[in-house]
Specification:
Elements lengths: L31 E4 L2 H4 L14 E9 L5 E9 L3 H13 L6 E2 L10 H6 L2 E2 L21 E3 L7 E3 L2 E3 L22 H7 L4 E2 L7 E2 L2 E3 L2
Parallel strand pairs: 4-5
Antiparallel strand pairs: 1-2, 2-3, 6-11, 7-8, 7-10, 9-11
InterPro entries: Peptidase_M15C, Zn_M74/Hedgehog-like
Pfam family, one: Peptidase_M15_4
Protein name: M15 family metallopeptidase
């Protein structure tokens, strides 16, 4: 099972994404940062969580969509990481790295991470434990981000998540939005001190970036 992500099958999506071009998107709009409440976090937070809503922030940034147009998306992250997250996603935008969608996991019924992954939703905070260990995932601290999780699945001894990601187990695929070792998009995170799950031995979590 995925140490940072979990969940229910659906049909694989085979649609290839177009390559974005710099002519279709102007400079990114400035990021905005606001606090969040327990009500806004919905099922992704509960009183037993290791941090409080007051320690989290909603960061709204510009990202390039698979339609090669600029879009606004939200990430819920730990307040300490806000400057880094803003800088990272501005760099990804300028690199023309496409992100299909970016919204809190509370958008999905029950805060279900599997549903978010199947929808290729880039997300951060979700108060959940690492399956099989009982320990909190770094997502529960707002210190992890999963990027294009359908295109960049978690793989562990032949099992993978999300359930509709089988076609993307072939890491020789090179369409936009996939992450590979040494990619500029990966280095944007690692140069800022984040760890990439794609470098792990078991499991290999291509979607996952974390900052302890």
């Amino acid at each position: 099972m995925l140490p940072q992500c979990t969940g229910a099958p659906s049909e694989p999506r085979l649609t290839l994404v177009p390559a974005p071009t710099s002519s279709t998107a102007g400079p990114p709009a400035p990021a905005t940062v606001v606090g969040v409440t327990a009500a806004e976090l919905g099922a992704t937070w509960h009183p037993d969580c290791p941090i409080t809503p007051a320690q989290l922030r909603r960061v709204t940034v510009t990202h390039l969509g698979f339609d090669a147009k600029a879009h606004r998306g939200d990430l819920i992250v730990h307040a300490e990481l806000v400057p880094q997250v803003i800088a990272i996603f501005e760099r990804l935008y300028r690199l023309e790295f496409p992100i299909e969608k970016m919204r809190p996991v509370s958008h999905y019924p029950g805060g279900d991470d599997e549903l978010s992954m199947e929808d290729n939703n880039t997300s951060a905070f979700n108060c959940r434990r690492i399956p099989g260990s009982g320990s909190w995932a770094l997502h529960a601290f707002g210190r992890a981000i999963d990027v294009n999780p359908l295109l960049n699945p978690m793989v562990n001894h032949g099992k993978f998540e999300p359930k509709n990601a089988k076609v993307y187990l072939d890491r020789k695929r090179i369409e936009p939005g996939l992450l590979h070792p040494g990619d500029p998009a990966v280095r944007v995170f690692t140069d800022a001190g984040w760890r990439w799950g794609g470098n792990w031995k078991s499991p290999v979590d291509y979607q996952h970036f974390e900052r302890r």
